[in-house]
Amino acid sequence: MLGLMQSQPLLISSLIEFAERHHGDAEIVSRRVEGDIHRYTYRDLAARARRLANALDAQQLQFSDRVATLAWNGYRHMEMYFGVSGSGRVLHTINPRLHPDQIAWIVNHAEDQVLCFDMTFLPLVQAVHAKCPTVKQWVALCDADKLPADSGIPGLLSYEAWIGAQSADYSWPEFDENSASSMCYTSGTTGNPKAALYSHRSTTLHAYAAALPDVMCLSARDSVLPVVPMFHVNAWGIPYSAALTGCKLVFPGPALDGKSVYELIEAEQVTYAAGVPTVWQMLLGHMKPAGLTFSSLKRTVIGGSACPPAMITAFQEGYGVTVLHAWGMTEMSPLGTLCTLKNKHLSLPKEEQMKIVQKQGRAIYGVDMKIVGGDGEELPWDGKTYGDLLVKGPWIVGSYFKGEGGDPLIKDSRGRGWFPTGDVATIDADGFMQITDRSKDVIKSGGEWISSIDIENIAMAHPSIQMAACVGMPHPKWDERPIVAVVKRPGTEVTREELLAFYEGKTAKWQIPDDVVFVDAIPIGATGKMLKTKLRELLKDYRLPGL
Ligand code: ADP
């Protein structure tokens, strides 16, 4: 017997329709590429998304055709999130920090038909457009009078002229909720990038889950600053959850330096911000020397790479801001776990609570996870045993776009497919998962594993260290030994010996790095994470002391 409730597909258009009807006057504020501040409401957003949908129809784009963006976080990008997917096309957000050749490769692989870009990326588009034959319309996200006279890009249109010529009357089509809605290529640190192809169903379920109190905890009372880019994994789904909750949205545009982000937080009374650790490093680096404080910020979600405990303490103790440590990946839409305490933890001493909130957290309903050993057998949840982390759920990839890489899933005894995350983790009895490392970064020393994240976190707790990256170096006896590359905080001093002594008592003796290498900067990849492959290249002539 089937249930007798209404059957209505979960579509992204329903989010924007809901936003317009139920919190149409909530504000969306954007710092534009031009540098000024733009303000409008969800009502305006919905009307312009409909104009865009009409423009795509006029372009004769078919159902599931791809429309790409090269854009910062801003209102026009937000319109594309809804106008493109809502009308049945697939939004392909491209990471502009990738190499131009890689961008051209991705555009061709996705067979993008329209590509809309912020003016910042005009030189990039000029460099790649001739290599992208599938793109039949290039659109600059600007006013008509800002369009350069001689861009060299055939038929280039301004977004405002393009959608301005269209009516705001449009009825969002109804179709199968499993239809593709958007896509995002993984950074492809090894081999060619592969695309996760999200569906309307996966995106709306993720939007519900992300808003939950023990997840991102978004509400109509929040003023939310997603620093995490809309060009990578849908800004952790915030645009969709924002439409669902009616929070005020504050978009930082291209200005991601500490000063600009701080000023925006204060000016727009941001209560909630989301980003990767490197962004918060810049923010705290700006605030500390100037003795600045926050007047409104209450919570920040930090994820994408391990959040150093020193950063959690700096936010919580120094500024009264609660840090929510999050873990996920492109293939997971991206949220998998968030770290919030349980009721039974509230009476624990602060230090005990701190040990918990450093972890990557508990699985969200909709994500099932387990750790397995080399034989594929599930390992215990004891907080000590580590294994390969596998996940499954309705917003986790089943396979990649165009079947790249074959079937990625690992079948269990009941035939259910689990996605291998490539992360090594522990899970404790309360279900808190902690990432030990990415499997390719873990350091294998004398048959034991050393977590590069642990080694980095200790260095980052030293007052003179701004950034730390730990990698394994070949060793004839131990196989690999860890070394730590560090960037000193400006105006501070620390010697190799002092830093090594700082490790004493904080980790097992055999896990203490063999050496410290002082560097000017740690290479950062397109998504703001440390690029260990690049660091290893830079250190290719390095030899461990005594070898
Ligand atoms: P890429 O495109 O670099 O593969 P993703 O943005 O999908 O990137 O990154 C996913 C990976 O980032 C995870 O598998 C994990 O290794 C790492 N990661 C994400 N969040 C965290 C976190 N909070 N702590 C540690 N590692 C994290």
UniProtKB/TrEMBL annotation:
Protein's recorded name: Fatty-acyl-CoA synthase
> Origin organism of this chain?
Acidovorax temperans
Q: Which UniProt keywords apply?
A: Fatty acid metabolism, Ligase, Lipid metabolism
User: Matching PANTHER family, A to Z?
Assistant: ACYL-ACTIVATING ENZYME (PTHR43859), BUTANOATE--COA LIGASE AAE1-RELATED (PTHR43859:SF4)
Q: What is the lineage of its organism?
A: Bacteria, Pseudomonadati, Pseudomonadota, Betaproteobacteria, Burkholderiales
Matching entries from CDD domains are given as: ttLC_FACS_AlkK_like
Record-annotated AMP-dependent synthetase/ligase domain positions: 19-401
Q: Which InterPro entries match?
A: AMP-bd_C (IPR025110), AMP-bd_C_sf (IPR045851), AMP-binding_CS (IPR020845), AMP-dep_synth/lig_dom (IPR000873), ANL_N_sf (IPR042099)
Q: Which GO terms describe its molecular function?
A: ligase activity
Extract the Gene3D superfamilies matched here: 3.30.300.30, N-terminal domain of ligase-like
Q: Which family does it belong to?
A: Belongs to the ATP-dependent AMP-binding enzyme family.
Q: Which residues form the AMP-binding enzyme C-terminal domain?
A: 455-529
List, alphabetically, the PROSITE patterns matched: AMP_BINDING
GO biological process, any: fatty acid metabolic process
